Request: fold
Amino acid sequence: MKILLNRQIDRDFVGGIYLTALGDLPALERIEPVDYEGPLLVPLQIGSVPLSMQVRTGQCVSRGDLLARAADYCLYAPRPARIAGTQQVRTEGIRPCEALVLDPLPDCQRFDQTDPAGPADAPEGAAEGVFPAQASHPAVWRQIEEAGIVSIETAEGLGQRLRHLEQREEIRTVIANATPLEPMLNAPLALLHQWNEQVFAGLAILKTWLAAQDAILAYPHDFALDTRPAHIWQVRCVPVSEKYPQGRAGSVLRTLEKMKQLPQRQRRKRSAVVFSIQLLRQVERAVLAGQKPLERVVTVCGDGVAHPGHFLAPLGLPVGVLLRQAGIHPDTQCVVEDSSLTGSAIDPDAAVVGPCTEALIAIRRARQDPCQPCIRCGWCIDDCPAQIDPVRLLHWAQTGQYQRARRGGVHACIECGICSYICPSRLRIMEHIQMIKRKLREGQRSDA
Amino acid sequence: MPNTASKRYVAPPFRVVPESARRIYRTQLAVLALPAAAGIVFFGYQAAKVILVAVLSAGLMEFLLVKARRRRLAGSLSHSVMMGLLVALMLPADMRGDVVIVAAVSAVLLGKHLFGGLGQSIWHPALVGRLIAQMFYADTLAAARGPLLARDQLVWGNIHQVWQPAKDWLRIDWFQTLSPTGYAGWLLTRPVEALRQMGRQDIIHSSEQMAGYLLDRLPSLGHCLLGAVPGGVGETCSVLLIVIGLYFIYRGYLPWKLPVMFLAGALLGALILPIGAGRLAPDGSTYTFPFLLADSAVLLTYINYHLFGGGLMLGAWVLAGEMSCRPITGQGQIIFGFAAGVLTMVFRLFTSMAIPCYAAILVMNSLTGVLDRLTRPRGPAGRPDRRWEPDR
Reply:
């Protein structure tokens, strides 16, 4: 009944579905530290970008020392440790990469690096020229760049993302999206509950940095948000529904536009930009306290764990440690990273917490039934947030008609996974759509 | 700790899918047992025979075809059995066994598997079976009258032992009248046939004339709502069919726009299509438009008889919503439903088709492909649009 009423009341993006929680909801009041003294495996890759090591084997480092860097990424040591070499690990579910092994060393003297390529140097690949914000706030820019904050929305360093944003048309609105992608992935709400002021301050910092006119915090309307800091930091708080995929940037933009919270066509002109809650807190910590993001809040949930919760996990922490701390059931069939609709199954013995890790979902019963012919129920079309025709795209994918799929709007797909989830014939629609996009990126011109 | 490296869970989604094809068809089959039960109540155990023969024939045909094709699909057997049940619901309870078998087998063989099986049909398989039975057994199925058990002979009465001389509804109130001695019921005019005859035998000029005709030739509306009228085994109990349709809407199997627009089209057709077109009265008038009648109560009653008599409710709430034969988009479903409703009234009033509603649905099934092509989402045209790159 509540969902029915919400559907009637909420003015939302078209399509989408309401998901139920898998297992219990993690408590918002507590973000647990991780009790682990073993070695950390800090990955030397972020996305598809490899990082170059700035330390050598045998070297001792202190907490916060630079370990590796690329053009816009920096990795720092989460704790005092000794570099014990490298090892193969898996980040983002299935991507293998090298990782620095950091052996624990509770008392360690810091040794000077022989080749300091540290924070004093300008990052490689810095954009040509200096932007107005950089020129007026060089210290703030330096702190943001050096912090090594990763923007998960665009899978790039925050510094690079801010440069791209400044090259765009004028950014008018910055938005913080606190809506959980799925009900049990409520880390944004836990962060808001714990560090309300830091999140608002981070949003205000980015609003000032991008010279935006407005700042909005979108949050679920049944969440008791403390709005006092909002008045101080001049942030508008807008309640929205928890319909999936409201946790995605594109969906919340559409919702705000429909609710007339955004001036018309700001979404299409790309003058509104969305940031995640964790990123905003990292920005605030970096700018106001000079703290680097050495830990991430990782949600462990699902019906395969006895004690779902949020954990403050250091980078490089083996995923198995988190799962054991959450009380993983022995009959859990798989562990999924990110989302139960679009994530990837990981090997918990080889995976580690990386700069992009947000959630681990332990699933007790994951069925993979065989595909059947489409029965033309139309649910994929009705529930598609992008308002495209998934089943026809599937047909074009199967027959190699990629250009036709491009004209049919395959790039409009936001890969939310609703079509595959809702399909009673178990058709792997999203997989095929991803394949079409891959083929188009690779320049395939196969068209039957 | 689960070792996912050795397992084949490589593709999302990782949640249990909320509905499966098998579950959809099994649920629909289970729910359609309700009008079947109502048919057994009003038409006796002979209706149960018809249902059983149809269901077994359809199930056996499906079994043989699956063996022959060596391809088994989850939900296909339930779907075929459901088609057999729908065929039975559309046939009268006093039908011979061979007619039932031909209809049920045709539904599965010609209406479903000839086009590729589950999800591939162009026309509703059960309607194809019903149409083929109509073609081969037109005389048997074209009767304007049909048997009905009296209220004291429900379930156990023999539908073949009814009072044969024709009775007018004027002299029968099913709720009050008991069965004649030695008989289980009566042979009565189907309400829809009485409506069709209204335009052919008499020329209606006024509300009073229409009111007199409706009172004399038709049962009270309660008969049509409850199902105490002659007709197909499962097509008479309108209230039950509406409840079933609402349940299908609740489960998401039937989009609400389709039956609503179907009924809207039928209502509009009943309102504006002339009665008695082509006949010439002594005063020179040829036909009457219902919406010109002065008394709105009479007009409303006339419309209600069209909606609740005959197979229109079965068509709107059950048959038109068959997933593989209806348009896949909301806009297409609106057009489909509305056009089917209007066509039903056109066929009813201006043709002598025995199955006007079912024929209308079959015609609209033929246009489903066109409606899909016109209404399917097209996405942003032309170049790939970077604005729409997947966001996280």
Notes: Residues 10 and 241 of chain A are 6 Å apart (CA to CA). Confidence is low (pLDDT under 50) at residues 1-9, 110-131 of chain A. The two ends of chain A are 48 Å apart (CA to CA). Chain A touches chain B through 81 residues (CB under 8 Å).
